[in-house]
Amino acid sequence: MSRSARVIWDDALTSYDFGPSHPLAPVRVELTMALARELGVLDKVELAGCEPASDDELALVHDRPYIEAVKRVSVSGRADLGVGLGTTDNPAFKGVHEASALIAGATLAAARAVHEGSAEHALNIAGGLHHAMAATASGFCVYNDPALAIAWLLEQGVSRIAYVDVDVHHGDGVQAAFYDDPRVLTISLHESPRTLFPGTGFPQETGAEGTAVNVALPAGCGDSGWLRAFDAVVPPLLHEFGPEILVTQHGCDSHALDPLANLMLSVDGQRTAYAALHRLAHETAGGRWLATGGGGYELVQVVPRVWTHLIAEAAGHPIDPATPTSEEWRRFVRERTGETPPLTMTDGRKPEFHHFSDGYDPADPIDRAVMATRHAVFPLHGLDPMP
């Protein structure tokens, strides 16, 4: 399906570092790029650098006093709790503005590539910092790069943008940025806010004309249930909305091994979702696809494999799940982390699911979650909520 794919990368993107004990460890993207290189995935994409987002670009989403406050923290390294920096989730560190602005600039570079047509698909795996709000850092996120990319695209005259967020946490910052803007359809599939940060993302949060869509899944949901929910909500809404560009956030913290959440997906289930989003980009947005990383805190077993699958999928050369990881990469993992690396690109699962159109089971908590979302938003799009 793909004609061209560009990966935005600069080694300095690993400078977004909250410290050695913080779960959002930059080694996860370092290991991802190393694995993608060893498996030949990076040979099939164009690699391009980036510049930090300017203050004017950051101000498309963030309040200027907030940007100035982040800069002050960046110089001093001292906390400013008024803007959410210096908490356990968001420790203050010297250089925080520069590191955060570079991640934002990388996602903006990806947005420019897709908008200008120099690449059909573009990715920033270091991005996806979807919790940052206009005036505060939140949930490991300082500047909201997906929201900035969407806002920039709107400034260029793009009239309809769809954002699909498959992180285990609700994409609250992106939803908040465009909650009253019918030009932007935000869809977030996440663990129920009753059991997980940030405590938002209920189906009743529907935004302007039903353009905020939330699928709140019960803890313990695995591949088959998650994919059933995705299939029941995302394709019909994207086909109906007809975006000019599809923006996606690929937090892989929905994996069963992730230490911060409670869903039970496999690497194989996640790569299945990425393939579905790739197809949907071509079916609904003329192939124009901007993808970012996101959460993911199992740094060795999950993140590198999943995001290598994402890059390969975007490049149009999916990796056979049975492919072994390279010995060179395994050696690098042991040197960098002291951990035992995975041997293959699969968890050994073959994700299958029953389509929602086959029938609704009111006794199934996943089906109830799906139906709550469909009832809340489908009629606002002229769609029948019943299967």
Keywords, separated by commas or semicolons:
histone deacetylase activity, globular, acetoin catabolism, Acetoin utilization protein AcuC, 11 helices, AcuC, alpha/beta, 387 residues, His_deacetylse_dom, Arginase, Chain A
Can you describe this structure?
The protein has 387 residues and is of the alpha/beta class. The longest helix is centred in the N-terminal third of the chain and has 21 residues, at 96-116. The mean pLDDT is 98. Strand 7, helix 8 (267-285) and strand 8 form a beta-alpha-beta unit. Helices cover 37% and strands 10% of the residues. It is built from 11 helices and 8 strands. It has an 8-stranded parallel sheet, with helices on both faces. The protein has one domain (5-381): Histone deacetylase domain (Arginase, Chain A, 3-Layer(aba) Sandwich). Helix 7 packs parallel to helix 8, helix 7 (223-241) packs parallel to helix 11 and helix 8 (267-285) runs parallel beside helix 9.
Counted by DSSP, the helix tally is 11
Could you list the spans in which at least 5 consecutive residues all have pLDDT below 50?
A: none
**Topology-level CATH name:** Arginase, Chain A
Structural class: alpha/beta
Per CATH, the architecture is 3-Layer(aba) Sandwich
Shape, please? globular
The succession of helices and strands, N to C, reads: EHEHHHEHEHEEHEHEHHH
Oligomeric description of these chains: single chain
Q: How would a textbook summarize the main sheet?
A: 8 strands, parallel
* Beta strand %: 5-15%
- Helix content, binned percent: 25-40%
Spatial order of strands in the largest sheet: 2-1-3-8-7-4-5-6
